[in-house]
Amino acid sequence: MTILLSTLNARYTHASLGLRYLLANMGPLQAQTRLQEFVIGTKTTELVERILVNKPRIIGFGVYIWNVEETTKLVAMLKRVAPEVIIVLGGPEVSHEAGEQEIVKLADYLITGWGDVTFPKLCGEILNGPKPLMKIHAGVQAPLAELQLPYSLYTDDDIRHRTIYVEASRGCPFKCEFCLSALDKTAWPFALENFLAEMESLHARGARLFKFVDRTFNLNIKTSLKIMQFFLDKIEANPDDPIYAHFELVPDHLPDALKEGISKFPPGALQFEIGIQSFNPDVQSLVSRKQDNQKAADNIRWLCEESNAHLHVDLIAGLPGEDEASFAAGFNKLVALKPHEIQFGILKRLRGTPIIRHTENYGMVFDPHPPYTILANKQLDFMSMQRLVRFARYWDLVANSGRFANTVQWMLGDAPFENFMDFSNWLYAHTDATHRIAMERLAKLVAQWLQTRGMSAAEANALVASDYAGGAQAAAHAKPSEVSTSNAKVRPDVALPQRQARHLAS
User: Fold this and answer.
1) Which end of the chain is more exposed for a tag (fewer CB within 10 A), N or C?
2) For residues 351 and 178, what is the distance between their CA atoms, to the nearest angstrom?
3) Is 361 a domain residue?
4) Residue 132 falls in which region: left (phi positive, over 0), alpha (psi -120 to 50) or beta
5) Could you tell me if 101 and 168 lie in one domain?
6) For residue 63, what are the contacts with CB-CB under 8 A and spacing of at least 6?
7) Do residues 213 and 165 lie in contact, with contact meaning Cβ atoms separated by under 8 Å?
C-alpha cells in the first residue's frame, strides 16, 4: 500500500462517504490506495501503530469539527515517529481559516473544498514528480458527471453494520449564514438514472438503511418522487423486508404531488429531518434564511397527522437577535405541531460561515475550541446560555429518547418551554450533571419532580412506570426482529434506529 485514506468517525456505525469518493476517483493510483477508518476516543498510540503497520507513503485525513482535536494529536505523533510519511489534509474543518490551525502547520499539504480530482492529482505529483511547491491546494470542482460514484466501495460489513450514506445531489441554493452550504452557488444533481442504478446495486447486496446527505432533497419534486418511488417499489415487492430512508427537507416546500408520495410509505420506513432553526422573521432575515413560517408549520402538521414519516425537526438557540422569550415562543409553537423529535441545537461557529459578520454588532462570543459553541451574545449572557445548553441535553435524554412519551406530555403542559426549563433547572440542582445519568436514576428523578408540581408519589411513579417500565422501554430493549412496523417486522440485521423504534412503540 502506498496511499492511505483515513478519518476518525464519530462512531463505528458511521461510514465516510467522502473518503469513498476519493478512493473511487483515484484512477491509476486506486490499486495502491487503501481506506482505513477509526473511531474518536481510540488511543492515539494505537491509531499510529495500526496506520504504520501497512507502511503508507501518503496519508490523506478527512478532518471535521468533531474529530479535529484528536486528528491533530494523531498527525503530531505520526510526524514524530514517521516524519517521512506525507500527510495530506482535507475536509470542511480545514478548508477555511487554515492559517491559524495547528493541524495545518503539522501537515505537508492541504486541499480545500472538493478533493475528488485534486487529491489523486496531488498524490501523483508527490509520487512521480514534479514535487508540489505549494502547501495549500484549492480543490477543483469537477462536473458531477465526471466523478466515479463510490457506492460499490461500501463493503458487505458496511452494509450489515453501518449507515449507508448516499447523495443524489451536492450543494445548496440557500444562504443560511450558520451553515457551510451558504458558500455554495447552487445545488448540483447527479444523473438520476446512474444514481438509482447504484441504489439498486446496494439494495441487491442487502442495504436497507439509506441516509441521504442532500441538503435539499425536495428541491426538485420530480427527482424526489422518482427516488421515493424506488423505495416504494421495493417495499411493495417485499413488504416483509422493510427499508428505512432518511431525507432532509426544505420545510416550506411540500406540494400535493410530494404529499401523495409520502402518504404511501408504511410506518418505520421514512424519516425526515427538517430545519426550522427559528420562527422569528427578524432573526431569519438577519441570517439570510428565507422561510415561509406558515407554510413550514402547515407542512409539519400535515406530516405528523397525515403520514407515517418520523419527523426530526431542528431549532437553533443563540442566533443573533433572538432572546430567550423569542426562542421559547418558537419552541412552544413547534411542540404544538407534535413532531416526534425536536433537536434543540446550540449555535456553532463553523469555520468559513458568514455568521461571523454579526460578531461585533450582536456581541457574539464563541468557544475557541471545537465545536465552537456560542457562549454568549447581546440577548443571552453566559449564564442564560448555559441554562439553554442544559435544557438541550436534558430534552434529548427525556423527550427525544422516546422513553418518557406519556410523562413528557404531562411535564410540558400548556407552557412547554417554561415548564421544561423549570425541570431542567431542578434536575441540574439535584444532580450537578448533564451526562452519565443512569436511566433508572433519571426515571426516579422525573417522578420526584412531578411530585414538586403537585402530583402524589403514587401518581408520579405510575405515570413514569407507564413509560419507562412499559412499552417504550420494552421496545428499546427488544430484539430488532421483535419491533413491529405495521404488518411487517424489522429483520434482525436491519434494525430501525433506536429512537425511531422507541417512538413507534410509544
Assistant:
1) N
2) 10
3) yes
4) beta
5) no
6) 7, 71, 89, 90, 91, 92, 93, 94, 103
7) yes
Position 485 in a domain: no
Q: How far apart are CA 340 and CA 501, in angstroms?
A: 11
What's the domain count of the chain? 2
221 in the same domain as 87: no
Placement of cell 462536473 in the chain: 143
Residue 78: how many CA atoms within 13 Å on its side-chain side?
29
91-123 residue pLDDT tens: 999 999 999 999 999 999 999 999 999 999 999
Close Cβ partners of 477 (under 8 Å, ≥ 6 residues apart)? none
Range of the domain at 54: 3-143
For the record, the C-alpha cell of 332 comes out as 412552544
Instruction: Name the helix (H) or strand (E) containing 89.
Output: strand 86-90
Answer yes or no: are the C-beta atoms of 80 and 109 closer than 8 Å: no
Would you give the DSSP letter of residue 86?
E
168-212 pLDDT, tens digit per residue, is 999 999 999 999 998 988 899 999 999 999 999 999 999 999 999
CA distances for 405 relative to 88, 400, 484, angstroms = 47, 9, 18
Give a yes or no: residue 175 inside a domain: yes
**Amino acid of residue 495:** A
pLDDT of residue 498: 55
407/464 Cα distance (integer angstroms): 6
What CATH number corresponds to the domain at position 33? Answer: 3.40.50.280
